[in-house]
Amino acid sequence: MKKISWEQKLSRRERQVIDILLSLGEASASDIRGRLPEAPSYSAVRALLRVMEEKGVLTHKSDGPRYVYKPTIAPGKARQSILKQVLDNLFHGSREQLVAALLDTSTDKISREELDLLAAKINEARKAGR
């Protein structure tokens, strides 16, 4: 079994699968397929899950005739790894551009409470010298 670290790049489809599993905790191939945008065939999903398991990012258990899959990493660590990929790939490593995109009010209204929490996090980072 070839294992990769979570820091190595996952494909777009693999990230979608991980996101589904992080939100559900665990799921069957059919459950995953039902939540994938522009879902491929069932056999393609099974093949993708098999590859991801070979990479070491998923594991499965038998539940009667079906397999139930779950990520091999804690949700917080997985989100950090995925966020780093987004930061590197979409924002060329610029945290400023990432935060600016999050604060773009043309798409969603940001509550005063959310803005206050973000400001507090920024102040914490300043004090910590990060």
Quick overview of this protein structure:
The protein has 130 residues and is mainly alpha-helical. Helix content is 59%, strand content 11%.
What does this structure look like?
- This protein is mainly α and 130 residues long.
- It has 2 domains: 92 residues, Winged helix-like DNA-binding domain superfamily/Winged helix DNA-binding domain (Arc Repressor Mutant, subunit A, Orthogonal Bundle), CATH 1.10.10; 37 residues.
- The chain has 6 helices and 3 strands, in the order H-E-H-H-E-E-H-H-H.
- It has a 3-stranded antiparallel sheet with strand order 1-3-2.
- Strand 2 and strand 3 form a beta hairpin.
- Helix 1 packs antiparallel against helix 4 and helix 2 packs across helix 3.
- The longest helix is centred in the middle third of the chain and has 17 residues.
- It is elongated.
- The relative contact order is 0.11.
- Shape label: elongated
Report the CATH superfamily of the largest domain.
Winged helix-like DNA-binding domain superfamily/Winged helix DNA-binding domain
Secondary-structure element string: HEHHEEHHH
Structural class: mainly alpha
Q: Low-confidence parts lasting 5 or more residues at pLDDT below 50?
A: none
Helix amount, in percent? 55-70%
Oligomer: single chain
What is the annotated CATH architecture of the largest domain? Orthogonal Bundle
- The pLDDT mean sits at 87
Give the radius of gyration. 18 Å
What's the number of extended β-strand segments? 3
**CATH topology assignment of the largest domain:** Arc Repressor Mutant, subunit A
* Strand adjacency order, main sheet: 1-3-2
Summed up, the helix count is 6
How much of the sequence lies in strands comes to 5-15%
* Whole-number count of domains: 2
Major sheet attributes? 3 strands, antiparallel
Distance between the termini: 38 Å
**What's the level 1 CATH class of the largest domain?**
Mainly Alpha
